[in-house]
Design goal:
Length: about 300
Amino acid sequence: MKDILRILGTWKFWKELIIMTGGMAIAAASVYYFLMPSKLVVGSITGLSIVIGNLLSAAGIGIKVSQVIVIINAILLILAWLLIGKEFGAKTVYTALILGPLIDMWEKILPIETLLEPGATSLMNDPWFDLICFVLILSASQTILFHINASTGGLDILAKIVNKYLHFDIGTSVSIAGVVICCTAFAINPFRLVVIGIIGTWINGITLDYFTASLNRRKRVCIISKDYDQIRRFIIEKLGRSCSLYEVTGGYTLEKSMEIQVLLTQNEFSDLMAYIRNNDLHSFITAGNVSEVYGLWNPKGRI
């Protein structure tokens, strides 16, 4: 109980709770306004729920898609807790269980019927435009949640399991799990819509990998300078980062010098370059993008 109270009293907990709620509200909007009206079954638990909901309705069993989502997610959450970890599982419990209610929230706040043009069957009135809008919005939501070790639930749980145990990129994992689910759409949709759903799943995986790489991108900066100690102190004391020092030999002059290597965010890299320019520190600098960082590199202030 003390541990729970301690966690509840931290800013990190409440910040991540707000992020998870906002991310899921975005995901729910993409489902309600673009996926459900078009009846597209993109590889997701929501898509599977649409299939099951339509089949049950045809059989005379009245159940809402949002209710089917909750039931399937409840099963998958047990897998998340057991196979991925308690933190991921606990966060996904929250995000998965609020998806259905948030879809209902959008339905009450701004019903889709009020946005449809006369004669239109979906918001964009074209399955391809509905697909593009859904994928872009959902991928942004997934990226935000994966960044704080959470997910939108459902397919993301399956993708995270594939990512953890088979070591595929998260976008590839989403695509693999999604294509399998897409095939269930043959039960309610014509071949054309199923193919659109499979293409959408593939685009979702590519977009997710792109957003994830962009969000995690860091600058690997290499600096050769006689003023290396002054630069080193700025990196450590002002930017709150550590760095590595290497002795190098110039190939032309054979002079010995020191090289600094450091990983920085884009803003920190801009601050470093401004410092070097403003202090007229003669340096040779190269920088490249790094999309993933493991090990001891931590958020600012936690070296």
